Each structure stands twice: as structure tokens, then as C-alpha cells.
Amino acid sequence: MSGGVDSAVAAALAVDAGHDVTGVHLALSQERQTLRSGARGCCSVEDAHDARRVADELGIPFYVWDLADRFSEDVVEDFVAEYASGRTPNPCLRCNEKIKFSAVLDRARALGFDAVVTGHHARLADGELRRSVDAAKDQSYVLGVLTPAQLAAAMFPLGSMTKERVREIAAARGFAVAAKPDSHDICFIPDGDTRGFLARRLGALPGPVVDAATGATVGEHEGTYGFTVGQRRGLGVSVGDQRPRYVLGIEPVSRTVTIGTRDLAAVTEVRTGVPTWTGPVPELPFAAQVQLRAHAAPVDCEVVADDGGLRIDLAAEQRGVAPGQSAVLYLPDPVRGDLVLGQAAVRTAGARSRAVRR
């Protein structure tokens, strides 16, 4: 129970279904007062109070589990290390993989519980992970890393309803969180300044910004961690022809950020690391759809084996495909909801004849 409206309603629906429910709030920071106040982030002391009030109204036991050390190691340090290596991680995906459906699930099972119920907007049908009926709130992307064993011990009661309906249920029950704003920020960066957070952790690591068309150095930066592939704004450079420039590649060893025009940013091929599958391993090659960012539209693709990982050939050009992000594969199904097949971390992305450097 995060303290938001989604997990409050998920807990209420689990109680209504007749389950023996215990509410758990996760303490994920050694200095919880440094997390958010208001609507930014999640998991603050304020959120714990909101979660406890809902648990009290439902008449269920409530505990705070301190997983700050595990969260710091598996999510925060991983986030910093990935940026230091020129990649762009998704900390919410990592939190689901390492914390909510690993550390929490392991402890829950040790205590005799059968499943972890969360307020994620996604569906489980016959053990298969599918998109939520509310496309605008669908969170299946950040759950695509889960294994069949983890999904077998998960429950997502909200996947068959819209966010509007969730708030209606909360309001009808008199929950104070019914109108509480959604959290959108990275919970351990409450001010939303990712570049500043990384600068404090990694220090100044200056290097050149190079224009791909000419090879000329067109600017300087204070750290490659301040950039992500596909980025257009905040490059801090001025190029003579005034055409917009995008980040094409990041080389942390030489500290070089390469930028280029829109045509050079086109991606038609993605290569990944070792995939994880939410169900039986599909036979390669196969046709599917791939989602390359948390809020990106899916694109048709062909998936083939590639040196232990996958090569994903895209049917339409994409941009902003950053190494380190998750490529989540779906089988479209307009009736039952798109089926999540699995995911793999992006290693390189580019046109057929080239690839973005990590």
C-alpha cells in the first residue's frame, strides 16, 4: 500500500473478494523526510500515514517494511551505475523486478502469504499478463520483466477498470486519497532534477559534444549522465545551420556525446541483451509489437535470435530508443487485451547499417 488511490482500492477489492489481507507499506529510503511532499514521487512518511488510514478503514492489519538497504542497492545504485555507463535505466521496472515481486514476495511467502496484491494497471488472465483496459494508465510495460513464477503469485485487481472508476470506488468508500494526485516522478529524486542528482553522485566529468555530420566539437558538457539517446532539449550547444539536433550516442569512456539531425536519429533495428519471458519461451523468429519506452506507442516488429539476445526489426522508424531501456514485446489482441510476451534490455539501436553506441 503506497498511500495512493490505486493501492487503496486494490486492497479494498481484495478484502471484498474474501481474502485474508494484510496491508504493507514499504520504507525505501534511509532518510524518508528527503522524499516528497504533496504530489511528487512516492513512499514518503506522508504516504505511509495515508496508507495506514485506509488499512484502518478496511479493518486489516498494517505494517511498514523497511527495505531501504535493498532498494538502495538494487534500484538507486543500479540507476546511477547505468547512467555512468551511458545507458538510460527505468527504475520503476527495476523496483518491480527486485523489490515488489522479489524481496516483498519472498518475505510474504516466508510469512505464509500466497500472493502480493498491487494497484498496477495491468491484467492477469489465466496466468497471462495483459494490458489494462485503460490504455492511458496501462503499466504492463514496467511489469514485463516479471517471470511466470512471480506472476503466479501476483494479483492486479485494477486491470479491468479505468482510473476514473478507481477514483469513484475510493470516493464511494470515503477514502481521503480518492482525489490524491498520481505520482509521476522518480521517488528518490523528489525535485525531479535527475541531472542534478547524478551530478551530486558522480561529480563533474566534462567532455565534448560532437556533431555527427562534421565531426566537429560544438560544445562541452559536465557529464554524459546528463544526456539520454533521443534527447533534443537541453543540449547546451548551437550549430550553425540551426536545424534541431538529437543525442545519437553516448560514450562514457571518452566522455563524448554525439548529436545529429533528425534523419540520423532514425531507428529501424534494436539489439538486446538476454530476454526474460512472462510465459513459455516463444519460438523464434516471430512477429509481434514492441514498446520501447514506458509511454511510447507500440510498433510492429519481427523478432529474431541474436547472439544470446534478440534483434528486433521495426516496421516503422522510431526515435529516442536509448540503450538501457526495456524493449517489451506484445502480441496484439483487441478482444482479450494485448498479451505481454516478455522483455529485454536495449543494447544498441539504429538504422540497419549502423547502431547507437553505448
SSE order and pairing:
Blueprint: H1 5-16, E1 23-27, H2 45-58, E2 62-66, H3 68-84, H4 91-110, E3 116-117, E4 122-125, E5 128-131, H5 148-152, E6 154-155, H6 163-172, H7 194-202, E7 207-211, E8 217-221, E9 246-251, E10 256-260, E11 267-272, E12 276-277, E13 286-291, E14 299-306, E15 309-318, E16 326-331, E17 339-350
Parallel strand pairs: 1-2, 3-6, 7-10
Antiparallel strand pairs: 4-5, 7-8, 9-10, 11-15, 11-17, 12-17, 13-14, 13-16, 14-15, 16-17
Helix pairs in contact: 1-2, 1-6, 3-4
Let me know the CATH homologous superfamily of the largest domain.
Answer: HUPs
- The counted number of beta strands is 17
- Distinct helical segment count: 7
Percentage of residues in DSSP E strands: 25-35%
Quick description:
The protein is an alpha+beta fold. It is built from seven helices and 17 strands. Helices cover 24% and strands 26% of the residues.
